[in-house]
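Project outcomes to date are best conveyed with an example. Our students and postdoctoral researchers have been running inverse folding experiments weekly, and each run begins with a structure described purely in tokens. The record below, which covers 188 residues, was selected by the lab manager from last quarter's runs and is presented without edits.
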């Protein structure tokens, strides 16, 4: 968010255009179903798991044809009512045109949310529905409390659970042959 308007207030309804015009006040906000939501700061374990997953994805996705991998906070504008800040997002080289100077305009190839106490229900229900509606091909939900990775893939406009992976083990998601995620390393 970048302009000279005042900070958004929680529970305020607005459009993506209005949301993106609000001045950055140092907090992390998202626009979910037209409602402004403040993101709580993540805890240390969340960040450790996120960093390890980023490292695994960076290496494996580079070998799968390039593209860009981003950490939050980076706005993803899915439609006029939804501007999210996934924990991680990947945009393939073939879809690089959706990456703008200030945000991503459209559905990334992969969106990853790492669950925490403050975001668990939003990530598993509301944001899953938003990503599904927004056409995100692959939605990953990482649960550091259960040492589990769920991968959902979009088929005929609906998410299908493609796999639930728990340690020990190595995950090689379909469509990314060079990508290998060692769950023992991820959740150590």
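After processing, the design step wrote out the following sequence:
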């Amino acid at each position: 968010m970048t302009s000279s308007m005042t900070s958004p207030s929680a529970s305020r309804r607005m459009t993506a255009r209005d949301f993106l015009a609000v001045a950055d006040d140092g907090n992390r906000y998202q626009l979910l179903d037209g409602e402004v939501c403040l993101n709580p700061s993540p805890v240390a374990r969340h960040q450790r798991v996120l960093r390890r997953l980023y490292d695994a994805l960076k290496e494996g996705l580079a070998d799968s044809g390039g593209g860009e991998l981003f950490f939050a906070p980076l706005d993803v504008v899915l439609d006029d009512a939804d501007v999210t800040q996934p924990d991680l997002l990947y945009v393939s080289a073939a879809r690089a045109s959706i990456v703008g100077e200030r945000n991503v305009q459209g559905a990334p190839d992969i969106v990853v949310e790492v669950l925490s106490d403050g975001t668990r229900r939003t990530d598993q229900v509301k944001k899953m529905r938003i990503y599904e509606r927004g056409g995100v091909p692959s939605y990953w939900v990482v649960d550091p409390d259960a040492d589990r990775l769920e991968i959902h893939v979009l088929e005929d406009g609906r998410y299908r659970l493609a796999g639930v992976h728990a340690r020990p083990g190595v995950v090689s998601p379909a469509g990314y042959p060079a990508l290998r995620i060692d769950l023992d390393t991820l959740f150590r």
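Residues 1-7 have pLDDT under 50 and may be disordered. Helices lie at 16-20, 44-62, 120-134, 183-187. The training component of this project remains on track.
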